[in-house]
Amino acid sequence: MVRVENLAKSGIKSIPKEYVRPEEELINMGDVFEQEKKKEGPEVPTVDLKEMESEDEEVRRSCRERLKKAAEEWGVMQLVNHGIPIELINAVKESGEAFFALPVEEKEKYANEQSSGNVQGYGSKLANNASGQLEWQDYLFHLIFPEDKCDLSIWPKTPSRYTEVTSEYARHLRKLASKILGMLSLGLGLEEGRLEEEVGGMEELLLQLKINYYPICPQPEKALGVEAHTDVSSLTFLLHNMVPGLQLFYDGNWVTAKCVPDSIFMHVGDTIEILSNGKYKSILHRGMVNKEKIRISWAVFCEPPKDKIVLKPLPELVSDAEPARFPPRTFTQHIQHKLFRKTEEPVGADQTK
Q1: DSSP 3-state helix, strand, coil percentages of the chain (rounded to 5)?
Q2: Where is the Fe2OG dioxygenase domain (predicted)?
Q3: Fewest 10 Å CB contacts: which of 137, 189, 298, 311?
Q4: Which residues span the domain enclosing 145?
């Protein structure tokens, strides 16, 4: 398996053809550093969660409304004052950076076996589309919550604090997921615990961590770190090393997300879009690369159990005026449906249905 890190360090001036994206994907592929600095144009909304601690119900209601509006219009938001200690977030980032700073042969000890269906561990994306194209990234992927379902044998032993800080972060993030799901439920006129119950509750909702490592790329205008997609999860929480690269397809254009210090970037995933009957959006997004700085992101996907729950629009949100927009499917069936559509439809087609 060729690691992108090795390719990047080999001194190549042009990227191998399997990493070159087709012309229709190369729209708005300018310099991400310049794009992030843009003052004009749409900007990802910011939601200050400190307001949810207010004793004033009006302040709390206003915060819920802002989160609801962001979920309806964008499907993504920057969460600030989210309650997770910044020291812990920095420790998580430092641990991930230390793992990827190890020699590739050391990281290979944690390599996954994608051909046998085992995606947990250290890896690089296999081509899963008809054209056989690859993405300019390596990654580390594993379950981090519930703790009793985690296989610690595949967690990095170096750096030594990796397990401790990642586990602590997972516990904090699980509480934050509950808070967000509660706010989103109320925004739909449902009981506060409804969405969380529908995605598996405390026992069954899985938190999967994927650390994405995007090496410097000699031809960033021709490659993608992650191709355009929507997340299948219920929610996705994202940290990054303050190097821009995330782009969102909003209102017909690709918008580069700004790097907000100490924030957590949050996506609404397909699962919540389906349950809300499309009231909340799962936005198309992609990861850009550059020739100046390594970019690293920490994505945690909050996923329902694969086969236990049938995902479909909640009956309270379906009517003659607003019929169900999505057929009933298990989480596994939804993933398979998306993979099938990906080979059949052009890039940018709506793959959430």
Answers
A1: 35, 20, 45
A2: 205-304
A3: 189
A4: 4-304
What is the bridge-based pairing of β-strands 226-229 and 235-240? unpaired
Over residues 208-228, mean pLDDT: 96
| Token representation of residue 215 | 């090496």
* Position 322 in a domain: no
CA nearest 111: which of 251, 268, 5? 5
- Does 75 map to a domain? yes
Task: Say if CB 267 and CB 236 are below 8 A apart.
Answer: yes
Query: What CATH number did the domain enclosing 198 receive?
Result: 2.60.120.330
Using DSSP bridges, classify how beta strands 46-48 and 76-80 pair: parallel, antiparallel or unpaired.
parallel
All residues at 6 or more sequence positions from 251 whose CB lies less than 8 Å from its CB, including other chains? 42
Residue 28 lies in a domain: yes
Catalytic residues: 210, 229, 231, 285
Structure tokens at 313: 């629009």
Please state the rounded mean pLDDT for residues 1-14.
95
192 within a domain of the structure (yes/no): yes
272-300 in b/e form (b: 16+ CB < 10 A) is bbbbbbbbbbbbbbbbbbbeebbbbbbbb
Q: With CA atoms as reference, report the closest residue to 209 among 160, 163, 148, 252.
A: 163
CA distance 227 to 181: 27
Convert the pLDDT of each residue in 300-350 to its tens digit: 999 999 999 999 999 999 999 999 999 999 999 999 998 766 544 433 334
pTM over the 0.90 mark: yes
Residue 198 contacts residue 275 (beta carbons within 8 Å):
yes
Number of domains in the chain: 1
Does the pLDDT value for residue 199 go beyond 90? yes
Residues 223 and 315 sit within 8 Å (Cβ to Cβ): no
